[in-house]
């Protein structure tokens, strides 16, 4: 942050550079502008052949500026320009009532509910598994290899199997998606919480023993609080994974709604702009969810006397 | 009672030049409780008979304790001194039932070490304060009380009383990181005393503190001992600390861990730091050194 201030030693005219807003946001804005520029250049280059082909097919003469303008306004470009994505995004977010099937808000909510349910299931499963592993060496040896194996099979291969099996059992809609999402996201929580539950200092464990505390008391008053930092670190990983899980689960199930369904429909019909605006929606969802976990972590930290 | 530090100050630290008393001075130290009982047969707080403890390590067996016998009467202040690896900490851990002897018998307050632990007969102070960082000072003090199921009102009452005893009233709502190392160790002593055990086991409690703070805490610990009448078992590797604090000094030697010498040390209970300059004090310190040398403690 301060590197820009260091790069330009205080010259009389440059006082705006020391303005706190500038110091804080200039690096972020610079990166964003650079990315957008790269994106535009890439859009021009990638769509060039497409647009030129279009002009030549219609045998209309064209200028360079027309050609470049065309690369940024094609209906089905290989790579849509940023403003096209933004326009499509705002249109599908604000252009319809949130319950309409063309509204991106509607699709985001469908995916979000599967994500949250999957995340909750995954968190409970992850913590329960970690507790079992920590409390029994036999369970550690018998469970851990399976837990690791479960993550080595690609979810894209597993998801249809899940959906079929659960469909036979009469489960449809939200739950199969949530289960796939939970299947993906419990893993970092288990690994993190095993580490967390074994984090207490041997001295603290000895102290509990001198007070002849029961195993349950040791868990409640020592192991749990010690594991809280590990819990939040793994929850942050898990919540993005569970979003990905929910989206992936929508792909093979032929879901009618959800961000995954939008992605699938977009790729069927070559609607690249629609794909990109769905991606933008999922990115916004993911950062919102991480932000929520972050906020929860800070609130818990305050209650637990973390250093400011 | 002068209070030089305001507890409300954020990040107050204990400065050697403005030390506040470890024990509130307003209460008189009890001096001559056991003086009269010297002649009477006393109950044994700790009775160790022929205890040995062998650790199996990757490079063979280690004799942490070898045929150790020791009787400690109630109300005594016993220091264990010796070089690293002489088994003094192991000795304390065996008494606390944190480790089990390979052979031998051990009675704490007339019952087995395990029974004594289950009945919460002792408080243990470790080298580090080992406070729980997510709990305030008051809640740290209440932790053993919560575990032992004291009623809420009594928890609060005891926390207040024992914080006052180590003169940390006003720090209830601070978190451990806001206190200096010496203050944290005082909290851990108050915590060990909070459920009123008969026995106080201290494993180099001041080992991590600088000498100035340590001298000060030594004085205050003596006052605390005088006031509470607990039996104290105190592990150290400082000769002056051992002589200054104790009624009895147990000199130990490594490989195998054994007792070389037991020295009685009968300074008056309200001794001051100045006795460290007296010939009697130096004589006992000399005898410890001789004992340590005889046990080959200074060998490489």
Describe this structure in words.
- The complex is a heterodimer of chains A (308) and B (300).
- Chain A is mainly alpha-helical and 308 residues long.
- Chain A contains twelve helices and no strands.
- Chain A is globular, with a radius of gyration of 26 Å.
- With 300 residues, chain B is an alpha/beta fold.
- Chain B folds into two domains: 180 residues, Rossmann fold; 67 residues, no CATH class.
- In chain B, 31% of the residues lie in helices and 23% in strands.
- Chain B has eight helices and ten strands.
- In chain B, the strands form two sheets. Chain B has a six-stranded mixed β-sheet, sandwiched between helices.
- In chain B, a hairpin with a 2-residue loop joins strand 4 and strand 5.
- In chain B, helix 3 crosses helix 4 and helix 3 runs parallel beside helix 5.
- Classes of the chains: A mainly alpha (308), B alpha/beta (300).
- At the A-B interface, helix 9 and helix 10 of A face strand 6 and helix 3 of B.
